[in-house]
Amino acid sequence: MSSKLKVMQVIPKLGYGGAETGCYDLAHYLPENNCSSFIVTSGGELLKFIDQKKVKLIKLPVHSKNPILIFFNSIALIFIILFHNISIVHARSRAPAWSCLLATKITRRKFVTTFHGTYNFNNSIKKFYNSVMVRSNLIIAGSNFIFSHIKDKYSKFINFKKKKFLVIFRGINVDYFDPSTLLEADEDKLLSSWGVTPDKKLILMPGRLTAWKGQELFIEALNLVNKELGHQSFTAIILGSDQGRDIYTKKIKRLAEQHRLMPQLKFIENFKNMPLAYKVSNLVVSASIEPEAFGRVAIEAQSMEKPIIASNIGGSNETIEDNVSGFLFESSNPKSLSKKIIEVLNLDESRLKLMGIEGRKNVIKKFNVEKMCFSTYSEYKKLLN
Fold first, then answer.
1. Nearest 5°: CA angle at 337, between 313 and 115?
2. pLDDT at residue 1, as a whole number
3. pLDDT digit string, tens, across residues 76-126
4. Which helix (H) or strand (E) holds 204?
5. H-assigned helices in 230-333
6. Mean pLDDT score of the chain, rounded to an integer?
7. Cβ atoms of residues 55 and 37 within 8 Å
8. Are residues 109 and 25 in contact, defined by beta-carbon separation less than 8 angstroms?
9. Cα 122 from Cα 117, distance rounded (Å)
10. Per residue in 154-180, pLDDT tens?
């Protein structure tokens, strides 16, 4: 086998999620460190940004959970591994992980998996399907919360003497999420396009529209804030797509109308310039009613020096220093969230500025993309020694 490290990451689709951006960032980091980098995926919005002079892109239907296609993909991966002399195969989701498991067993290559979520299960078949993520040589958890979840739910599938199991926090590009790089003219233009006046404080809730992300809870909390402070105290934006879940979108819009929050509360879809969205906001909220495996919104907001309020469950407990770089509220409790929103809206500018500085320092120290990529690269090298 060639001495040059050759890494093939396999992921269903390259969209804008945390797992996908992590894959993208690592793929471009590896060639800078004399490694060959490959991505196998079925498609996605990030494909057009891949530098194909540095990263070899291979398309396969690895998003499919069809057992026949999973088997077909494993055969294709065997040929790819042998043809390109791949050293390490890194799977970032369950369906492609089954294909990778078979391919690495046959080719005798090292197999790495990253647990990006808790992967809910309600029966033994589903749990077995999920267990592929702990059948690798190296298991990476994206947070201590995920690490504990794996140990609690999948320990019978893990031989701790033969497998390495560790936490590598996800990272973001702190140069991209940097408040100093944005122009005031662009901020004014965005606020105008959203119909937000500068005299109102803006509360932003980013994230895809799905029940567990807590948009209903957020709307209930805003109603309580209005009762306390009045309708003129703020503007709020729910920023995200329903990805085809229009029934849920209609439900939360009806709820907002029932509480007479429209047009004080606005719904914005398909906005890609997240640093600018954070920059024009006074406060960012993440109200998930189920544990976030990591909580990318909290990290991005802190990097942009914005106060963040998040549920006190899951990864948010690790990414936010409560009352220092942000605030935690009691999960699923609209009254607790409303109290925190009122508290932040009433904070003086010097306290908010200090909190913003602490938030960015927190991200640079613990959650920057360079640290994530270096840690993963280092573990790759250890795996082959």
1. 25
2. 45
3. 999 999 999 999 999 999 999 999 999 999 999 999 999 988 887 778 888
4. strand 201-206
5. 246-258, 274-279, 296-303, 316-319
6. 94
7. yes
8. no
9. 15
10. 888 877 667 889 999 999 999 999 999
Interatomic CA distance for residues 182 and 184, integer angstroms: 7
Sign of CA dihedral 26, 30, 32, 36: negative
What is the token pair recorded at 108? 């005798």
Q: Identify the sign of the CA torsion 89, 77, 22, 318.
A: negative
Residue pair 130/94 in contact by the 8 Å Cβ criterion: yes
Q: Residue 41: which of 86, 8, 11 has the closest Cα?
A: 11
Whether residue 182 is predicted with pLDDT greater than 80 in this model: the reply is yes
Q: Do strands 164-167 and 283-286 pair parallel, antiparallel, or not at all (unpaired)?
A: unpaired
The pLDDT score that the predictor gives to residue 2 is: 52
Torsion of CA 285, 286, 289, 292, to 10 degrees: -170
DSSP string, 38-76: EEEES--GGGGG--TTTEEEEE--TT---HHHHHHHHHH
Alpha carbon distance 291, 20 (integer Å): 20
Token pair for residue 191? 């606020």
pTM to 2 decimal places: 0.89
Q: What is the mean predicted confidence (pLDDT) over 211-225?
A: 97
Amino acid letter, 62: V
Decide if 240 contacts 209 (C-beta within 8 A). Answer: yes
Contacts of 20 (CB under 8 A, 6+ apart): 11, 13, 14, 44, 46
The percentage of residues in the chain with a pLDDT greater than 70, rounded to a whole number, is: 99
**What's the rounded Cα separation, in Å, for the pair 296 and 14?**
16
In percent, the amount of the chain with pLDDT more than 90 equals: 83
Q: Checking DSSP bridges between strand 283-286 and strand 265-268, what pairing results, if any?
A: unpaired
- Tokens standing for 327? 């605030």
Query: CB 45: neighbour CB atoms within 10 A?
Result: 12
Task: State the greatest distance between any 2 C-alpha atoms of the chain, in Å, as a whole number.
Answer: 69
Q: Which domains does the chain carry?
A: 6-171+368-384 (3.40.50.2000), 179-366 (3.40.50.2000)
Distance CA 385, CA 383 (A): 6
Query: In sequence order, what are the residues at sequence separation of 6 or more whose Cβ sits closer than 8 angstroms to the Cβ of residue 239?
Result: 204, 205, 206, 207, 268, 271, 277
Q: How many Cβ atoms are within 10 Å of 98's Cβ, its own excluded? A: 22
